[in-house]
Amino acid sequence: MLQLKSKMLEALSSVIPITVIVLLLSVTVVPLDTGTMVLFGFGALLLILGMGFFTLGAEISMQPMGEGIGIQISKSKKVWLSLLVCFILGVLITIAEPDLQVLAEQIPSIPNMVLILTVAIGVGVFLVISMLRTIFHIKLAKLLLGFYAIVFVLAAFAPADFIPAAFDSGGVTTGPITVPFIMALGIGMASIRSDKHSGEDSFGLIALCSIGPILSVIILSICFKPDATATETVLHEVKTTKEAIDVFVKAIPQYAKEVMIAFMPLVAVFAVFQLIYKRFRGNQIFRIISGFFYTYVGLVLFLTGANVGFMPAGHVIGEEIGKSSSPYLLIPIGMLVGYFIVAAEPAVHVLKKQVEEISNGQISQKSIGIGLSIGVALSVGIAMIRVLTGVSIFWFLIPGYAISLVISFFVPPIYTGVAFDSGGVASGPMTTTFLLPFAMGACVAINGGSSANIMTDAFGIVAMVAMTPLITIQLLGLNSEIKRRASHKRAVARFESIDDCVIYYDN
Hints:
80% of the residues lie in helices and 0% in strands. The protein is built from 20 helices and no strands.
């Protein structure tokens, strides 16, 4: 109970800032109707409860399960079997990702299952590549450079309307279920190695797995030739508190069913793994099962709150500012929201904790949090510029990824892995359910609701959120490296000056 209380307080501190911002906007710039505010209030409460349950559940179930499977895979002498297991795990865990379901619903031009399976296969393939990287000690920076080069070359042949959605798919795939499991899997795979690079290789799996969906959706759009259409956010008409409660009561069973379906493959994987290897004992099994329960309850509450409460508020705020006399307020307001909203991402808490533990405190949770907040703020600001101007996303993605890939050759490898993992983690359910509707609402107001404009201008905000932390986190690493080298030089200089002052006597 003490652990749960601690997680709830953590969640409260994460959600309160964005809640306060929305409340302030509602009484100043964007007056929200009572129904929207009531839905938002209940949504915020469910977000706090959901995040608390989820983070505790992920800590006591997803992480030990992922580490256990990772260790067992690394011990296996049959490489082909290990690769097959990685592929299957990648596919199953992606299908289970709720964020992907949300994105698929907003792109009806591609059948949901076609899009989900395409993305899942992409993750499975790149999880295999991640394992091969760990086995053969391949530098992450080289792999990222090569694969992103392939992505941008293929993107030149894909329908322009689907490029933003393709890059968005890379961000939403690494959500609250995927991140804890894959990160723990990477830690487990690297833990049995005793070389100095094992800690560095613990990170980077999320980074590579984020490329798979982008690449697979680009290939799908070239072959499938889908129509460029998108759905708009469903806004619930409520006037009283009772009506708002009824909306949530009706929504909870729906999300409970969706999360249950998503969870079944994970439970099956754990059951099969335990039957074969018998890695976990009595108390450990009980903790993992109880962790599954906490994670399940947390995700149901979180997704209900985000989709029913936060999504309509984001859409209305974006639309109202967009059709106001000062639509350029979208940029500073979007940046302010982006700065604080990343703290409400469940997977961010998992990442910060694991980074601090693996780096032995070298990379603090505070520094990661600040780097992510600044990065997301910049990304939302750029996304709003795109909504206002209609500038192609390539004008931002190509320079952004070029800068991040160049920096990767000058910073400690651990920072590159953390940075590219952070990009995937930052673009979670809060981005999908608040920032994307925010951009879509603004796009509807500015461009008259054209679906083509929504696909080209509104979509891509998840991709921007996933890109900018790559630069900001690595800049933290570059600053750390500069300070380390300067400190080393000072230490050498002091030693030499002391040595010069020593008087040696011959006996």
